[in-house]
């Protein structure tokens, strides 16, 4: 049985970029493959959250993150396992053991570390070491597929290198996750989805961008969504065309609306291409996004904390069983047991 594994940090409210780029694709994969006998692990990496600032209360953010998945249509069955990372102590334990296999050289090459520590006179060790914790998250469950945004692909390659080196030294303990090219194929996309910043459409939409109007948050009210869309940067061509290279702003609006509507891009674009009514297009996009987002928020509101906690507790029993068995194998291989 193959295993798919994914997690999204719970530091704050998520953006529409996180939702369309990472959450919806995972929900689609889970709903399909869990019915075909794959094991699907969706966990909230709360230990990864504390490497940077947390907005609000981490425990509450963790519960909200799972509500996002459920409101986005995640179906629960016996193959879908949901858990909080810190409730499975084997993650931290294996991280230490893998720290003794990972090298300073390979860790220093991690782009995310370089970006997140750039210009800072001091940064915490967690920012440097979290890719090893990520390797533990993946290897404990023998995960084959790890659907993630492109920014995380380097960490999958690192996981493969650490696991291969460990297996070479101590014996065949770990299943090696698929290479990144296979991961992309598995996700069923040509290219990873990248939603743009509303003000500067050359950049990607990020929750950490300071400007409020640059991003749509999943808890924005319809009027706020409409205001942000109406104010989005477009271009001066006066002709609607889908082309990220020359018209990133308009293309981003078309792309978000099609993804939100769940229809193909060409179906959405054909009603608008060639026209000059930018204002009308913005109104239509604002309508689609705010209506769908309001539906999503209404579904969120119906999910109780108790329901989420029950899913976590059930999943954590399963996760501890699988993770502890793999950890024991590792401990025996290394000579700790
Ligand atoms: P931060 O600014 O704190 O890095 P972020 O918005 O980039 O926040 P992450 O927590 O880094 O969010 O990423 C969560 C997931 O969302 C990852 O799988 C990432 O690839 C995906 N993601 C983030 N931004 C976008 C975007 N604009 N379009 C598509 N996917 C995205
Ligand atoms: Mg990011």
Topology of this protein?
Blueprint: E1 3-7, H1 16-33, E2 39-44, H2 46-49, H3 58-71, E3 80-84, H4 90-99, H5 104-108, H6 111-117, H7 125-139, H8 153-170, H9 180-187, H10 222-230, H11 248-261, H12 265-269, H13 278-302, H14 305-334
Parallel strand pairs: 1-2, 2-3
Give an overview of the whole structure.
This protein has helices at 16-33, 46-49, 58-71, 90-99, 104-108, 111-117, 125-139, 153-170, 180-187, 222-230, 248-261, 265-269, 278-302, 305-334, and strands spanning 3-7, 39-44, 80-84. The mean pLDDT is 95. The longest helix is centred in the last third of the chain and has 30 residues, at 305-334. Helix 10 packs antiparallel against helix 13 (278-302). Helix 1 (16-33) links the parallel strand 1 (3-7) and strand 2 (39-44). The protein has 14 helices and three strands. Helix content is 54%, strand content 5%. The relative contact order is 0.14. The radius of gyration is 21 Å and the shape is globular. With 337 residues, it is mostly helical. The protein has a three-stranded parallel beta sheet. It has two domains: 3-188 and 304-334, HUPs (Rossmann fold, 3-Layer(aba) Sandwich), CATH 3.40.50; 212-300, Tyrosyl-Transfer RNA Synthetase (Orthogonal Bundle), CATH 1.10.240.10. The two termini are 28 Å apart. It binds adenosine-5'-triphosphate and magnesium ion (MG). Magnesium ion is lined by residues 151, 206. Magnesium ion binds at residues 151, 206.
